[in-house]
Design brief:
34% of the residues lie in helices and 22% in strands. With 367 residues, it is α+β, with helices and mostly antiparallel strands. The protein has a seven-stranded mixed beta sheet, sandwiched between helices. Strands 11-12-14-10-13 form a five-stranded mixed beta sheet. The two termini are 46 Å apart.
Length: 367
């Protein structure tokens, strides 16, 4: 449950030395400034056995980067032209992370959170910095699942088409045309969160990526923390003549996808004896193999194929489908390589450079 503004105010009033050496002596809510603007609060503060100062306070119940930036801009407007050296702008939230703290520092705004962290500067007389205390209010943390599962497809298409999309409908159609299924509602919710995280630009109806490298890093974090990825079933088989699973010279192979170092080798990025593939259903895969007279024999010790069963939409999205061996796309392979130590991260760096280049006209990354 998120804290309300009133709950945050009451926490400040009852601090009782919690933020020592900073002391909160009094707090007055909803104060009108000289220009008529009304601020959340004015606090009378002091340092233990030291000088005192006043703080013009802006309270944020949820500290998304967008909210913090807006709060910083409001505070700058409140104190613009203020000549009082003993009065500072101060943003207060349940928890302020590293990214949010940098936004405030860049704007010259002091801050304090209810988890016990702070960065306060009063002219040249007072400077307090205390960071590293964990978030005591995790319910207020921005949602991280937007970089996993179906939701992650929104970030992926923004990287595939860096010039952006003229509407959310265009984004939905772009995703669904590339072997995935997503709804307008899901796209709308994810775009809203990406906007709050300052990861995208929104100009009227146009939606485009603000910082491709940062967005790719957030996808990698989401992939690393994905519980779905960790629950995948993996099997080892001896398979002879897997290319016979193809339905003909003109039909693309969609029964399995090369992944891992096998995919990296196909893309010309690695050399390996490992053959790793994704399938959606292992039993269905084996039944089709039997019909095609392809031998698929379980062999934990000497199996030449490692098969992973998954319906993760990110795996199958925008895959490079071929007549013989189809391959996961560059973004999916990049994510796989980031966690496949020790060799994977070096390949991931090569893929990163490729991904950050503009996609071609149909959104398929050039290989």
């Amino acid at each position: 449950m998120r804290l309300t503004t009133e709950q945050i105010v009451q926490s400040l009033k009852s601090a009782d030395g919690k933020y020592a050496p900073l002391m909160i002596n009094s707090l007055e809510q909803q104060v009108s400034m000289r220009d008529g603007c009304q601020v959340d609060a004015i606090m009378d503060c002091s340092i233990q056995n030291g000088p005192s100062f006043k703080a013009v306070v802006e309270i944020k119940t949820v500290a998304t980067p967008q909210n913090i930036l807006m709060g910083a801009q409001l505070l700058k407007a409140y104190v613009a032209g203020d000549k009082q050296v003993d009065q500072i702008p101060l943003l207060v939230a349940p928890y302020i992370g590293t990214k949010q703290a940098k936004i405030l520092a860049d704007n010259g705004i002091s801050w304090l959170d209810l988890s016990g962290n702070m960065s306060i500067r009063v002219s040249n007389r007072i400077y307090i910095e205390r960071t590293g205390k964990p978030n005591r209010f995790p319910d207020t943390a921005p949602i991280k699942k937007i970089f996993q599962g179906t939701s992650s497809l929104v970030s992926r298409v923004l990287l595939l088409k860096p010039k952006g999309f003229s509407s959310l409908y265009e984004m939905v159609n772009f995703i669904n045309a590339r072997n995935a299924k997503i709804t307008l509602s899901t796209v709308s919710k994810v775009v809203k969160k990406l906007d709050e995280e300052l990861l995208i630009n929104r100009d009227n109806s146009l939606v485009s990526v603000a910082d491709p490298e940062k967005l790719l890093e957030r996808l990698a974090q989401g992939y690393k923390n994905s519980t779905e990825r960790k629950k995948r079933n993996t099997y080892k088989f001896v398979i002879e003549g897997i290319e016979q699973l193809s339905d003909g010279m003109t039909v693309l192979c969609k029964d399995y996808l090369a992944c891992g170092f096998y995919a990296a080798q196909i893309k010309g990025l690695a050399v390996t004896d490992q053959k790793m593939i994704f399938v959606k259903d292992i039993e269905q895969f084996r039944r089709k193999a039997e019909k095609k007279l392809v031998s698929v024999t379980p062999d934990v010790e000497f199996g030449n194929f490692v098969i992973t069963e998954t319906n993760d939409p990110g795996v199958w999205f925008n895959a490079d489908y071929q007549i013989t061996v189809s391959v996961v796309d560059d973004i999916e392979l990049y994510l796989e390589m980031t966690v496949d130590t020790p060799r994977g991260p070096k390949i991931a760096e090569q893929l990163k450079r490729r991904i950050l280049q503009k996609g071609n006209s149909d959104g398929q990354q050039a290989n």
